[in-house]
Design a protein that fits this description.
Layout lengths: L17 H11 L5 E4 L2 H4 L3 H14 L2 E4 L3 E3 L4 H34 L22 H15 L4 H10 L12 H9 L6 E4 L2 E5 L8 H6 L1
Length: about 210
């Protein structure tokens, strides 16, 4: 009757899955009577989704077949129990994987590993290791002026008037300049989820004493 594909959208993420929703609508409209999938965890990984499928199965008498786990009989208490157990196992696998990934990321951070690629920090190149001297000079100037008592608004207005933009190409604000000069990266520290976990591999831009004063 059709192939329903939601590539790169995890069944455990909670994000909308357009084709999955179309599948359920077609079942409800009795256009199809059997759902075939690779494994139950490709169809559902959250209890709420499974209960929705069970309700739909009761209303529409749809059958479920999987390549890896055989048929799912949601018309019986035993079949529903098996489906719930498979869902719980799949959910547990996702959570364990997440814990391992977070632990590995923290271990890399604690050991001084480089920041992951992504949005770069002002003052550093996209590798988050190489100092961009022209931007570093702006950071040092702003830090010096703020440490001397000049207001955030005054510094922000001056940078914007000079056409100096943030790492995203946007005008400066009090929040962005404050976050930049207070960022532990500026003194060569490594952070993980906002917490300083040790020394980083990147060269410092600011003097630690100036950073401490700020």
């Amino acid at each position: 009757a059709g192939v329903y594909v939601d590539n790169d959208i995890s069944a455990s993420s909670g994000k909308a899955r357009p084709e999955y929703e179309r599948l359920l609508r077609d079942v409800q409209a009795r256009r199809i009577h059997v759902i075939v999938c690779w494994h139950p965890d490709r169809l559902y990984r959250r209890t709420l989704e499974l209960e929705r499928i069970i309700t739909l199965a009761e209303q529409s008498a749809v059958s479920f077949a999987t390549v890896q786990a055989g048929d799912l009989d949601l018309s019986t208490a035993g079949g529903r129990m098996v489906a719930r157990m498979l869902g719980a196992a799949a959910r547990g696998e996702v959570e364990l994987k997440g814990e391992r990934q977070r632990a590995a990321a923290r271990a890399r951070a604690t050991s001084g590993g480089a920041y992951p690629a992504g949005m770069r920090c002002f003052g550093y190149a996209p590798d988050n290791l190489t100092v961009i001297e022209s931007e570093a000079a702006v950071v040092r100037e702003a830090a010096r002026r703020l440490a001397a008592g000049e207001s955030l608004r005054s510094v922000v207005n001056d940078l914007n008037a000079r056409g100096i933009t943030t790492s995203t190409g946007r005008p400066w604000s009090a929040n962005t300049i404050k976050a930049t000069v207070l960022n532990p990266r500026m003194i060569g520290k490594r952070t993980y989820k906002g917490e300083v976990v040790g020394d980083g591999p990147q060269p410092p831009i600011l003097d630690p004493e100036v950073h401490e004063r700020l």
